[in-house]
């Protein structure tokens, strides 16, 4: 197995970019080839500092997002994922919509064998909400 990887197409990794995208529509999820695509293995990505805005009250929401997936031919590059998730910080959206949007965007970028996105949102009005979306359904 070769130690070389195809990273020529990655625009964030190894660069000192510090300007975050203003919205998920502006963000780019970059990928690289999975050098172990003949084997099923699970990648789990935790993002405990997720934030967004409630579309009704305008108040900030926070969550612990977890993305678990079995890659096929592509893996997500984590710096681009960090920038993508941070782009939600000023985005007004319901918690359930966020989890489903992240799943849809990640599936579109990586075309995984399986993926689950789980968001455990901080309590509001004494109720803690957890939403989970899975691919394939």
What is the subunit arrangement here? Answer: single chain
CATH topology of the domain at 31-125: GTP Cyclohydrolase I, domain 2
Uncertain runs with pLDDT below 50, 5 residues or more? Answer: 1-5
| Overall pLDDT | 90
Can you walk me through this structure?
The protein is an alpha+beta fold and 137 residues long. It has a domain of 95 residues: 2-Layer Sandwich (GTP Cyclohydrolase I, domain 2). The chain contains two helices and six strands, in the order E-E-E-E-H-H-E-E. The strands form two sheets. It has a four-stranded antiparallel sheet, covered by helices on one side. Strand 2 and strand 3 form a beta hairpin. The longest helix has 16 residues. The chain starts with 30 loop residues before the first strand and ends with a strand.
A few lines on this structure:
By secondary structure, this protein is α+β, with helices and mostly antiparallel strands. It is built from 2 helices and 6 strands; from the N terminus they run ββββααββ. The longest helix is centred in the last third of the chain and has 16 residues, at 95-110.
Give keywords:
137 residues, alpha+beta, GTP Cyclohydrolase I, domain 2, 4-stranded antiparallel beta sheet, two-stranded antiparallel sheet, 6 strands, globular, disordered N terminus
Q: Topology of this protein?
A:
Elements: E1 31-33, E2 43-53, E3 60-70, E4 74-76, H1 78-86, H2 95-110, E5 114-121, E6 130-135
Antiparallel strand pairs: 1-4, 2-3, 3-5, 5-6
């Amino acid at each position: 197995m070769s130690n070389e990887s195809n990273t020529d197409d990655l625009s964030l990794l190894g660069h000192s970019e510090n300007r975050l995208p203003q919205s998920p529509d502006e963000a780019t999820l970059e990928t690289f080839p999975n050098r172990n695509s003949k084997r099923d293995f699970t990648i789990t990505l935790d993002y405990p500092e997720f934030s967004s805005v409630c579309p009704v009250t305008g108040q900030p929401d926070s969550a612990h997002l977890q993305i678990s997936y079995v890659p096929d031919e592509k893996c997500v590059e984590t710096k681009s994922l960090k920038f993508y998730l941070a782009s939600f910080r000023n985005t007004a959206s319901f918690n359930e919509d966020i989890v489903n949007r992240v799943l849809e965007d990640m599936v579109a970028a990586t075309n995984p064998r399986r993926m689950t996105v789980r968001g455990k949102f901080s309590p509001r009005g004494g109720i803690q909400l957890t939403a989970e979306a899975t691919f394939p359904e």
